[in-house]
Amino acid sequence: MHEENMKAQAYQREKDEDRAHGLDRDPGLVPKDLTAPGKSESGQVNGAESEKAATQFSSKAILAPEDMESRPKVRRAVLMLAWPVIIEQILSMLTHMVDSAMVGRLGAEVVAGVSLSFQPMMLVNGVFGGIAMGNTVLVARSVGAGDRDTASRAAFQALVLAAMLALVMVVPGWVYSPKLISIMGADAKALSSGIRYFRWLIPGAPFMLCSFIMGGSLRGAGDTRTPMVINAIANLLNVFLNWVLIWGNLGAPRMEEAGAALATSISRVFAFAAMFYIANRPKSIIHFKWPGFRAALKPDFPLISRIISIGFPAALERMFMSSASLIYARTVASLGMVPYAAHVVSLNAESMSYMPAFGFSTAASTMVGQNLGAKQPKAAKVSAIECWKMAAIVMIGMGILFFIFPVGFMKIFTDDARVFPYAYLTMRIMAYIQIPESIGFVMGGALRGAGDTRTVLGITLAGAWGLRVGLALLLVRYFGMGLEGAWIAMAADWTVRATLMVLRWRSDRWQDIKV
Description:
The chain has helices spanning 2-20, 47-56, 65-68, 71-104, 108-144, 148-175, 177-183, 188-201, 205-220, 225-247, 257-279, 293-297, 301-333, 337-373, 377-404, 406-413, 420-449, 453-478, 482-507.
């Protein structure tokens, strides 16, 4: 009792000091060990509230108020969330490189067909990415509020919605695959390979998209390690099955590009099954309940509408960004294949810096969402800023290396000496871009985590379409500035987006978003 009184007095002194500096602690920011969870004012224990409070502070994304004053503890919490995402991204990139190398041995036409068949899937991924974001935000808010039931129901409803949409797309995707691939401009040989690959990919697409949704649910709940482990195993399985099915090893038939697609489908089925198993474990924060098959699959329209209200702007953002990137790429390609190759290689080199930023962006989304759910807006602000600082350290450090060794980074991805002279232009502009890009990645993630997806959509439209596309067309086609003009437009895009996101963050209006 004496120890609790001492803690209470210390907390009151901190509160008085805050008020003296014009600050005020949130009513919800009471150290968790000063009050017994689940006790009413009369001292009676409420079992439901006890379970709710225990769930609230079981997440790694939420720290007690006194811990938020310790920057090392905040950074440790950020790293606990970010490092699995970073490792997952690195493993995914390595798997893609190995996968591309295996398919590449089948010939240029096969590579072209497979690459073109990915474009329709990118559009679909944008739609499902929006559902995943709406789901992640709602799960994070609910976990932060200690409402495990709503978090689990939101995850399940998002999964049902994604499964229904995916199944609806399967048959048209199979039937119209020739038209979808031909729209991308494939010649006859590439078209044949693309159709074959796409049709073998379609059966696994619903599982791939549903595992995407479930991974978002787990990350929103603060569990970034489980998706990392499952996807790492799935990626290794994908590579092994590529070796078996593409070339016909271990007695399997030689399926070539169809084998690569089937390997991807099987690995995604595994990832979905593993995540679904985790979500059915009672110990998991996201825990599906089965009151009966019909009852379980019955749509909860109010909950689905909340998911869509957040996810629809996020889906539009992804779609507008993808379409802007396509037009921007075509503008650069009009300069010739060597400048375009230099452009692509430079972007590949940049992937070494933005993968960590993606991890910190995910951490910011989770921590902001959960802390707002826990009624701790001050903690949400502190955690987001710490996420940005850690991302900035990595990206600015990489930017310095880009500036000093521009050709060296290009040589990692190509041995074509014709592109090296462009490195002094592209990689040094890229060095500057690391600063606003770190802000755009992390603050964008933080605003999405708060549910402020409409603002992020508007900022993306202004930057990607107004500057990256519009300014690039102006500088390249009308002022004849070539690749330099295109990269100046990219730098302007990130600078404006970062500025607008900082202004929105400093306004604190994101704290009032209802999800």
